[in-house]
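Hi team,

As requested, here is the filled-out complex form for the cytidine-5'-triphosphate run. I kept the field names the same as last time so the parser does not choke. Let me know if anything looks off before we queue the next batch.

— J.
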Amino acid sequence: MLKGKSILLGVSGGIAVYKAAELVRLFVKAGASVHVVMTANAQKFVTPLTFQALSNNAVGSDLFSMESESQISHIQKARMADLVVLAPATANLMAKMAAGIADDYLTTILLATTAPVLVCPAMNVKMWEHPATQRNLRTLAELGYRIQPPAAGFLACQEEGAGRLADIEDIVESAIRLLTPPTLTGRSVLVSAGPTHEHFDPVRFLSNPSSGKMGYALAKIAARRSAKVCLVSGPCSLDAPAQVERICVTSAIEMRDVILKISSKQDAIVMTAAVSDYRPSEKAAHKMKKSPEGLSVLLEPNPDILASLGAIKPPGQVLVGFAAETENLAQNAKDKLIRKNLDFVVANDLTRQGAGFAYDTNEVKIIERSGETSDLSVMTKEEVASQIWDRVERLLSGGQK
Ligand code: CTP
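And here is what came back:
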């Protein structure tokens, strides 16, 4: 995700410095080359050696060091960064940045770089709430700095409130987003995900093993490409991806009602939800007691949400469906493409290892209206999502349908 990208991590002096070490590890794991710059105060919490070992690059700290400046100068460091991340950013660092002060290695780089800068503040809650800090924050936003707001919680200073460094995973996600071309800017997209639960009493339901992972990956990748994303999700245990509006539903009827209400405003809709085809005809008001005679539940068909969307599809909207099959993959998927009036269908064979429900990977065939078929090898669901959005973008920009 960050392959080939150069990230400069600026670390200033607060107790959250130890968390920045983990941030380096995650950036490196995602493929970035990381150069760390520490303020003098940051080095009182954690030594440069830790960051050097994790980043595999020399740590910059002394503006006047003959040795480090002769190897790679601070101006070169400012130039080569694709992104600068400041974590933790102290109140002092933010104040200097707001005033344009350049009195050490890090603040000098901040004036010299033209790369986007993500500021991740961490401090005591009273310092965070202080009008001077809040004024500086507004100034930084006006100057074009991106802010990753701190989280609220129990702070190292034994106080409760906002000021904790944002979750490391959220910082990584913001960094990835800043480095992803915003190819879906101005586009609204809707993704459905997860299973539906069709209750026959308050504690029992009919469902399927869908984990929601494919739909959540699609929502995440679209948000990274700067789309306005609405994720309509059946019950699952996943957290909503950053910058995504999630609407949680339980049954197929609820899912249909939510989707049909907002479908006409969407540039693209991708239905990954494993909608239950049937629902119990009746739902008992109370938990059904067991009986020695066994239990028969009468089922009635659920509406086909995707077919309804296909029937009312406005011109220019891109509609994508999934086809989960255990036999005749290509033929069944093509039938769904025509029957539901789709632009393309993503077919997966549920009998294949590493594909379908609950896996982190998927192996799919993408069949387009033109008949063109792409067989994708086993890849992560995020990679499959990228392939899907690439095609959606092509269709939205007037490419062949
Ligand atoms: N789908 C839907 N509403 C339903 C059933 C399915 O919107 N009631 C959507 C799914 O989200 C998916 C596509 O239709 O994008 C195909 O779903 P799938 O379960 O593979 O096929 P079905 O249409 O249910 O047909 P069958 O069960 O006979 O394979």
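Two things worth flagging: Residues 381-396 form the longest helix (16 residues). Residues 252, 271, 273, 275, 277, 302, 304-306, 321-324, 336 surround cytidine-5'-triphosphate (CB under 6 Å).

Thanks,
J.
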